[in-house]
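Throughout this chapter, every protein is written as a compact record of paired, labelled lines. The reader may check this reading against the record printed directly beneath this paragraph:
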Amino acid sequence: MPSQSIKKSEATTAWRRIADDLASEISHGNFAPGKGLPTAIEIAARYGVHRHTARHALKHLQDQGLVSVEQGRGSFVTGRRFPYRIGRSVSFRQNFKAAGMAASGRVLSVHCITVPSSIAQSLNIATSETVWRVESLNLGGGKPISLSIHYVSTTRFPDFPTVLKDSNTSISETFRHYGIEAYQRFSTSLSARIATQEEAARLDLSYGDPVLTSEGIDGLPDGTPLQVVESAFTPARVQFVVEPD
C-alpha cells in the first residue's frame, strides 16, 4: 500500500484516493477474500490524514461491495459476487444450483392480508380480496443472500401456507402441487435503497447499509399472474445479470 502523506488541503479528495489505492490492492490479490484490512487508525497514520477521512474511504469500499464492516471486528474483503441471473425464468434455488452452490430458504412469516392496491393491480384481482404475504430468508452457500416477500391470491391458493410447508418452503414446488409445472417472469424492476432495520439484521448488514432490490411479477404463458415478489439482496454477495429473452 502506498505510504505517501496526503496534504490536509486535499482532504476533500483524500478519502477517494485512499479508497482507490485500497481497491487496487484488493484487485491485485494483496488482500484475499475474508482477510481483514488495516484499521481506520492505521490507514490514517499511513496516509497522514484524520481517522474520519480513513473511515470515509472504508465506507466507500463497503458501498462498492468490496468490503464488509463488522462492528467491533473491523473491515474484511468480501468474496466474489454471485452472478444472479434475471430473465424469462427466475428461481433463487435454480440460480445457485446451476453454479454448484447449495441454496436454501426459510419462511419467516405467513399472513393473510387485504391486498395492497399496487399488488392487486399486478395480480389482476380486486382490492377487496386478500392475499398471502409470505416472508422468507434465502441463503446461498450458507450465507444470507436475500429477504423476499411473496404475494399470492388466497382465493386461487387457499391452502398455500400448508402446501408451502410440505414443499420444503420451495415456491416452485408449491405451485407444482397446484398443477403449475412452469411459470415465467413477466417483468422485473431493479433499484437500490438503504436497508431497513429488519433487513440489516436478517441479512447480516450494518444498519444504514444499502441493499439491491427487485420487484418481479411471475405468471403463466397465457398472461395469468401468479405472484408478486419483492426482494432485498446483499450487494456484496450478488451481481444482477439481466439476460435477453
Summary: The chain has eight helices and ten strands. Residues 1-6 have pLDDT under 50 and may be disordered. The first strand starts at residue 67 and ends at 70. Strands lie at 67-70, 74-77, 82-86, 103-114, 130-140, 143-153, 184-194, 210-219, 225-233, 238-242.
